[in-house]
């Protein structure tokens, strides 16, 4: 799942991929915002991504759906 965090006063966003579900990520972000604690997520390489609550401008949490890979029906003559 792809995650994008916008950081206040920083032009570039922080993007990473995680094995967590969209609901798990949303719950962690929501809980951190309520508690005032940093947002701490683990990416698919095992690295911790820690963002202070006050630095978060926005969060884009990808969907859990997988998209088929391939060409599908190309429709021929």
Would you mind describing this structure in some detail?
The strands form two sheets. Strands 2-1-5 form a three-stranded antiparallel sheet, with helices on one face. A hairpin with a 6-residue loop joins β1 (2-7) and β2 (14-17). By secondary structure, the chain is an alpha+beta fold. The chain has one domain: SH3 type barrels (Roll), CATH 2.30.30. Helix content is 18%, strand content 31%. The chain is globular, with a radius of gyration of 16 Å. The chain has one helix spanning 22-35; strands spanning 2-7, 14-17, 39-42, 48-51, 56-61. It starts with a strand and ends in a 16-residue tail after the last strand. The longest helix is centred in the middle third of the chain and has 14 residues, at 22-35.
The percent range for helix content is 10-25%
Please give the alpha-carbon distance between the first and last residues: 38 Å
Oligomer: single chain
- Widest sheet: strand order? 2-1-5
Low-pLDDT segments, ≥5 res: none
Structural class: alpha+beta
**Shape from CA axes?**
globular
> How many strands?
5
CATH topology: SH3 type barrels
- Output the helix-strand order: EEHEEE
Q: What proportion of the residues form beta strands (DSSP E)?
A: 25-35%
**What is the radius of gyration?**
16 Å
Sheet of most strands: 3 strands, antiparallel
CATH class: Mainly Beta
Mean pLDDT: 87
Q: Could you say how many structural domains there are in total?
A: 1
CATH architecture: Roll
InterPro entries: DUF3107
Pfam family, one: DUF3107
Protein name: DUF3107 domain-containing protein
Organism: Bifidobacterium favimelis
């Amino acid at each position: 799942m792809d995650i994008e965090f916008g950081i206040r006063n920083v032009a570039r966003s922080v993007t990473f991929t995680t094995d967590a579900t969209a609901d798990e990520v949303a719950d962690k972000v929501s809980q951190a915002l309520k508690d005032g604690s940093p947002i701490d997520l683990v990416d698919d390489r095992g690295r911790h991504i820690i963002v202070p609550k006050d630095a978060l401008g926005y969060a884009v949490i990808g969907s859990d759906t997988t998209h088929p890979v391939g060409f599908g029906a190309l429709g021929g003559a």
